[in-house]
Design brief:
The chain has 21 helices and 18 strands. The protein is an alpha+beta fold. Strands 6, 9, 10, 11, 13, 14 and 15 form a seven-stranded antiparallel sheet that branches. α11 packs antiparallel against α12 and α11 runs parallel beside α13.
Amino acid sequence: MVQEINESEYNILINKQINQVINLINLGNFQDALILGQSLEQSSENNPNVLNVMGMLTVKLGDHADAVRYFRKLVKIRPNCALSSYQLASSLNSTGQREAAISSYKQAIRNKRNYADAHYALGNVYGSVSDYKKAVTHYKEAIRIQPEFAAAYNNLGAALTKLGRQDEAMDSYHSATRIKPDYSEAYHNLAVMLNICGKNEQAIVTCLKSIEINPNFADAYYSLGVIFGALGNNEEAIRSFERGLKLVPDHIDTNAGFFYASGKEVPGWHIPMMNDDPRNQAYKRALETTITEDTQVLEIGAGSGLLAMIAAQSGTNKKITTCEMTPVIASVAKEIIELNGFGNSVEVLAKASKDISIGEDLTDKADLIVSEVISNEFLGEGVLDTVEDAKKRLLAPGGRMIPESGCIMINLVGGEAIGKKLYIGDVLGFNLEPFNKIKPRKISIDQQMNSVELFTNDAIAFQFNFQEQDQFPREVKTLELKLQKTGKCFGIIQWVLLRLVDEIIFENHPVKQVAESAWYPMFYPFYKPLNLTKNQVIQIRATHNRTSVNFTLIAIDGVPFQ
């Protein structure tokens, strides 16, 4: 026999079950709450309390479309309930139904005067559809009703920013942080505005405050990077972007900022250099020839970490140390080394070799120092300073250098193809020769010169013995080159020859090289082409100041060149 219960008892039972659903929601047990709630829905389809709790539950579950269904029913039952209209509006907004959401928020405000939350939410919707004037109106109304409404001040600042009202925006952000001192987002927005207004130092302090409050705020790290970039502090910009990417690796703006900033730090020649197979192979042979199981290796200029990994493969039992002065390159080198399984055998120091100290960075002096800090004109990366310091402080007695020595080589150059790159004359019947007066005195041409003509025997301009010399003074000398052929000459060509170890040589010779090198020959064009004759003697003044080299034609067969 089924015992009947009266309406009062039934309502008590329903309310008890509703409370159970609410308790399960509060505990985060949404699935059990859903099972019980669906059972309630079947037995009390139009019960406003059931509809309300099911609407709240589906919001928690992220099913906003279902929440709209529940709240629509609720609003029909309770048309004058401000909260129900507000809940419906929020769910409509979450499903992208902006116009319907605006209408429902307005209904909530009609049902309840001075509804600050509804004005705030309505401001957010207007902001999302770029109607910033209406957004400002509703944010201000929310603040009028609730003067300590920090979020409304923050979002008001954002809307005012869009309208170009910068001073008012900053005032709003300041108000938000005054009301809520731990408001990380408001500090971040204020920092962005300070940066826009050119107050970069204040912007940094403010952005750091945002990060101090919320160390996991990826957007703040992005903005901090932008601000450091505006101040010209590219290193700190990169560091900030990197921190942001650790939090959100696919953050579009931060990735863009990182690549832009790191691009400033990393010259474009790094990629061609890493792909330079002739040079890579030469260095590989040199390292394999030199390294034994007891060799302590120091690499100067890690780059990609390639040479350090080759060294680690070459048989030493001791840990390889490589240093890199550019932090972003050092970081990537470490990543590459770990990726290739050499993290335990290679240590990357993010510092210049001049900052390395024995006892702190290195346990002992190195038995072998290997480096590639050489430019296509040989001296451009400060190799002489680096070698002098490294030999004095970091190389063990009897230790070896790779490369052992190097030469700056020259020749006179001609050929129709190269002439068009070094000299301008008649173009379409117009004489453009005066332009040669202002052309660069030194040119790098990044392609193999298949049609280059060399007029003399290859000559050594300067020679540097890294293994034997401890110091490399400035030099000025006169070179005499005897012509081996007759023809039109456009200037001087210069390249690099390195003796890595023993008979292992790398040379980016403009004609003899088998494959193109990332070290391109340098050209020192004459003011005008010269018609030269076999057996003529050309005198050239060659100079270097330890960081750059220069060549000047001074005489032909003893006659000064004008």
